[in-house]
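In this section we walk through a basic example: taking a raw amino acid sequence and producing a predicted 3D structure, encoded as discrete structure tokens. The instruction is simple. Fold the sequence below.
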Amino acid sequence: MKHKIRIHLADDHQVLIDGLTNLLHTVENFEVIGNSKDGTTIYQDVMQNNTDVLVLDISMPKKDGIEVLKEFSQKGFLCKVIILSSYDDLKIIKEVMKLGAKGYLTKKCAGENIIEAIEAVYQGQEYYCDAVREKIFFSFTQNNTKLNKKIYTENQILSSREIEIITLISLEYSGKEISEQLFISIHTVETHRKNIMKKLQTKNTIGLVKYALKNNLINS
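The resulting token sequence is shown next.
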């Protein structure tokens, strides 16, 4: 029998919980196994019901979603976390990325993207809806006309050249533009890109951006 993805919903609006539950129950391998209406019991709730994916609102009574994520970060992640929020503020998006959320959806795109997002994060990928992804990259390209030359040295995984490559990738430079900026061939750029993704165990550019953001290679 195929394993069902066990989903816990955390939102203080019962109407949203009911709507999402009805939608997710249309997927054969999804099972909504619980919900929380304030942030104080979420960690305990997902621990007790062996949650695979937590869909978490930022604006929660008593303890908000940011504080819940901090609790998970301190105690250890019991499940994959997707933020589902009315907010698309870039500061909040970057904060939850740093705290370990695996996905971020605005409530406007929830009906369209929630099923795909749950499947993606359950399989170990990261998922950000188009509006959020565009906001992240627009910010980086607008606010980082010059590279931040600070190299993260503690437990450094990447070489100095790889740090230059990942920084430029995070700023949405194309392979051709990177080759021109660093005076190396496009083939060398692509080789570096593959090596970086292998070292960081990520499958997409969002993973590279998160590393660059976390290690202060680009301004936030």
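Looking at the output, two observations stand out. The radius of gyration is 19 Å. The chain has two domains: 5-134, 144-214. In the next section we compare this with other chains.
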